Predict the structure.
Amino acid sequence: MRVHFRKVFFDCNSRGWPVKLRVDDACKGERFMIQRFIELGEGYSDIYELIALAKANRHRLSGFFVFHTVKKGQAVVSLAVVLHPTDPGDFQPLYICREGIPDPSVKPNKRYELFMETAKELGMDVIHLDVKPSTMFAEPDLYYQHLIGIMRMNRFIPPLQ
């Protein structure tokens, strides 16, 4: 049995104890997909960069996401664009503007409307998810791992390979 843990690979010996392998040995013939959130900002002016990325990569678009949450008593959304993995390389970028846009059901705003119009223009459905706020996590990377787990579990992005 081979286990991947923090970029170090382990095999189990005859007693079931983990034995460290060299990374070169562990990766022979195996491919691992990297899925990573790339934060553009909180959605003020960087929402335009998110939209430009979606339009420029229309051939790689996988999905548009709106993550709804309550942060410091305010209903806010995070807007994300997911691209298909690169080939070669198996890198799947998930671009996000995190928790800086008011929830449109509470306070209508032009930035959210622009995101929705872009999705419609590109022929993509927008997936809405209610999630925990990033302030519940010690650091943003943990929050992003939480979101990736939710997206994998619901089969919006490919599972680990």
Observations:
- DSSP finds four helices and eight strands in the chain.
